[in-house]
Amino acid sequence: AQSVTQLDSQVPVFEEAPVELRCNYSSSVSVYLFWYVQYPNQGLQLLLKYLSGSTLVESINGFEAEFNKSQTSFHLRKPSVHISDTAEYFCAVRGKGGGNKLTFGTGTQLKVEL
Amino acid sequence: DAMVIQNPRYQVTQFGKPVTLSCSQTLNHNVMYWYQQKSSQAPKLLFHYYDKDFNNEADTPDNFQSRRPNTSFCFLDIRSPGLGDAAMYLCATSRGQGEYTEAFFGQGTRLTVV
Predict the structure, then answer these.
(1) Contact A35/A89 with Cβ under 8 angstroms?
(2) Of A25, A59, A111, B3, whose CB neighbour count within 10 A is largest?
(3) Chain B residues with CB inside 8 Å of A101's CB?
């Protein structure tokens, strides 16, 4: 079984400032890692994923996340946020060999202010 | 564009009155999932279909049922909705459950129970 911890329920940040959203996981097997973004009253959109290879993964809109196996973390970062990044961000894990069942964290609300 | 479509986006039902939520997909994916997301909580998997095979999560209440008449459609039936069933219901699909598959989500149906 897997579990995901997102310690920060809300992160306020000013526009153009850097941000880090933290994600830690627990699993008895190797995992795949994902970040999803959810805008108000919308479904989940995949932001980026780590399946194998380079531990640093990037999205097309400037977010990046680094898989750190020793610290069991997959923190999400962006060097300069925009108002349009305001949304809820969910970290999720999937155990290798365990089908496609995703286990989600409780989410972090990113609020970008002017 | 190929996508996952959920209808309706918003559903209001009366306490105890059966309700059905709909999900359709044009991706021709063989796996379909239903997640429940309560306010400020992580999405939680209720069940999934792998082709016609139904897989129920151990802690999904009996009040929740699902039907998949064909590849494209999947329904979530709540037999006797209670106030605690008010939530966003998310449908997702994936092509198989192999290592490099990813889940695609619909925009969700927000269910209100009055």
Answers:
(1) yes
(2) A25
(3) 45, 48
